[in-house]
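Researcher: I'd like a candidate sequence for this fold, 415 residues long. If you have to choose between options at a position, lean toward the conservative one.
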């Protein structure tokens, strides 16, 4: 696929941006804990603010994106995220950074991320044929995997030696990189057909009904929402857990995270071959079960040899969740008509990230009363149970899924 110049530009836009995002994913909570002395509840609130915009705006953005070209939306969203994140190191430089500003900046980034993610997920089927979606999604997911492998150690070292605001600055610059490469794509994206006389509420309803009445999309979306609820709870607390109960420094957290996430690289490389051998439908639910099983090892983490549980869990969940994400995205894009892509993606994101916002807030509250480790046990059990929706769905009796026929916009793109 790298022979396709426009896909290559899209991939390059995604590559460094993913690295910057992963650096901030560790640098922001470390900045809050180490520099601003944030509590577990405040750190979990940061995670909530990253995703709550999907709950507030996700469905509306999906309908809006189906009315417009996706590429300009992604460029503007990248520039907005760069400005919002750039305010954090500037405030830190002048010694005026507070948790309040951190909350506002992260919320603004979250709003622009809603627009970017919906447009990004809708753009790939307009850029490549649907028969190449698994390969395209695998290559984009490989960017996340490489970033997940390299960024934690980079972020930990930068926080330890150069301070967390510098690490956040790297993420802001990565969004500028992304905007430049997306702007350079040469393919002319078809203009969506005008929808005169149709209200946004009606269009939102069409997308929501399509997802919730389709037996496969309904199962994947509900499972995904449950996964988002409990996985977000885990992610909101795991850095605080490693610092305060396991006793790790920022540098060590980055190092062990990089070693464990190597599984995501492996999964990205074998995804296409695994799908051909096992079947797209079958691999989707197998990956979900694999992810949930390894998630149960995280709460067993402790000092010394107890870190083995963390490394094994991180490697296993990285393999499972990477395969799951690639298959889920490919299944959704293949089963959805082009004219509903934005609304379908928005509905799925609304369910996942809306649940994630609730999960982050609940995790911090629950941990305040029962402690970090018991809360991680609850999160792990919930992730495993989320796979039940897929196992009990029609996917269990299927090997592969049908690929939708090209629509008018696809035919127009191919000329």
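Model: Candidate sequence:
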């Amino acid at each position: 696929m790298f022979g396709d110049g426009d896909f290559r530009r899209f991939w390059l836009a995604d590559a460094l941006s993913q690295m910057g995002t992963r650096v901030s994913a560790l640098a922001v909570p470390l900045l809050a804990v180490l520099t601003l002395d944030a509590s577990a509840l405040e750190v979990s609130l940061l995670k909530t603010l990253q995703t709550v915009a999907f709950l507030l705006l996700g469905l509306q953005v999906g309908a809006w994106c189906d009315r417009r070209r996706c590429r300009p939306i992604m460029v503007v969203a990248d520039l907005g995220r760069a400005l919002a994140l750039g305010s954090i190191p500037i405030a830190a430089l002048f010694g005026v950074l507070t948790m309040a500003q951190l909350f506002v900046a992260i919320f603004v980034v979250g709003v622009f991320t809603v627009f970017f993610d919906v447009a990004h997920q809708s753009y790939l089927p307009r850029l490549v044929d649907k028969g190449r979606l698994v390969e395209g999604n695998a290559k984009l997911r490989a960017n996340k995997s490489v970033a997940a492998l390299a960024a934690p150690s980079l972020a930990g070292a930068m926080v330890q030696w150069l301070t967390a605001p510098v690490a956040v600055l790297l993420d802001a610059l990565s969004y500028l990189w992304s905007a430049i490469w997306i702007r350079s794509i040469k393919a002319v994206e078809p203009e969506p057909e005008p929808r005169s006389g149709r209200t946004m509420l009606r269009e939102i309803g069409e997308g929501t009904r399509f997802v919730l009445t389709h037996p496969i999309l309904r199962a994947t979306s509900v499972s995904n929402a449950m996964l988002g609820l409990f996985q977000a709870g885990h992610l909101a607390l795991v850095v605080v857990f490693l610092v305060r109960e396991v006793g790790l420094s920022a540098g060590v957290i980055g190092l062990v995270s990089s070693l464990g996430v190597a599984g995501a690289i492996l999964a990205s490389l074998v995804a296409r071959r695994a799908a051909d051998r096992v079947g797209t439908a079958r691999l989707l639910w197998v990956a979900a079960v694999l992810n949930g099983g390894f998630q149960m090892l995280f709460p067993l983490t402790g000092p010394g040899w107890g870190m083995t549980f963390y490394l094994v869990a991180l490697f296993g969940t990285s393999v499972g969740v990477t395969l799951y994400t690639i298959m889920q995205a490919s299944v959704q894009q293949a089963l959805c008509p082009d004219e509903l892509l934005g609304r379908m993606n928005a509905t799925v994101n609304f369910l996942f990230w809306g649940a994630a916002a609730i999960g982050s807030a609940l995790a911090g509250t629950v941990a305040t009363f029962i402690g970090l480790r018991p809360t991680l046990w609850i999160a792990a059990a919930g992730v495993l149970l989320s796979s039940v929706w897929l196992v009990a769905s029609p996917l269990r009796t299927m090997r592969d899924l049908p690929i939708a026929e090209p629509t008018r916009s696809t035919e127009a793109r191919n000329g």
